[in-house]
Amino acid sequence: MSAYEDLAYVYDTYMLHAPYDKWFMFSKQCFGLFSSGIDNIIDLGCGTGEIANRLAADNYAVTGVDYSEEMLAIAQQKAADKAVNIQWLHQDMRELVGLTNYDAVVSFCDVLNYVTSIEDVQQVFEQVNQSLKVDGLFIFDVHALDYVEHHLIDQTFADVDTNNAYIWFCTPGDNEGEMFHDLTFFMEQDGVYKRFDETHHQRTFSIQTYEKLLKQTNFELIHICADFSLDKEVDNESERIFFIAKKRS
Fold this sequence. Notes:
This is Class I SAM-dependent methyltransferase. InterPro entries: Methyltransf_25, SAM-dependent_MTases_sf. GO terms for molecular function: methyltransferase activity. Its EC number is 2.1.1.-. By secondary structure, the chain is an alpha/beta fold. It contains seven helices and eleven strands. It has helices spanning about 10-15, 20-35, 50-55, 70-80, 120-130, 145-150, 205-215; strands at about 40-45, 60-65, 85-90, 100-105, 130-145, 155-160, 165-170, 180-190, 190-205, 220-225, 240-245. The protein has a seven-stranded mixed beta sheet, with helices on both faces. α4 links the parallel β2 and β3 (about 85-90). It starts with 7 loop residues before the first helix and ends with a strand.
């Protein structure tokens, strides 16, 4: 079973309080500060389309890319309901096809943490670089290593509401920053609860590793910050680290 195959149908239920507005506003702030103009954007790992829909509603030309067909189906329905025009593509971000000359690529909400080897991170960065114009922006976030080690690994999380429930165990992998999320969901359907299980594999790398890989793939790293604030430096309390890079000529 691929990640998000069943989870896609309850994903939005458990992401009601996700900071999508913050990701959207952070993107716009970066566009204004670090670019002379942004028209077309790739939302890489777009999921159910929350960020892509916000960008499209703000008159950007948006292409949403995701590996989960189930998530894309939900995203497409949302766009139709909101009457916004978005191109949706089912692609592996390590092998992007037909995407060139974009002004910006954004990738938020753990997407890069699903890329669990250095070789694959480098391949994703190369694909993103080829999809951008010269001076195009690449903006992404990842979990901070300290946050993974002290607030996720070896922790158990659970939630119950009227119709659904989940239990989530986070266990360490063999490498620094590597973790496995073992998820059990109970979803109510016509008065009967269906159980399904998924395992999600994630890894986060050091800031220095991401810096090195960006440099190797023809990016200039222009800013690093934490937790949705361009002014916040990364420290031991940071949860998310944001990278803003620009394609070199």
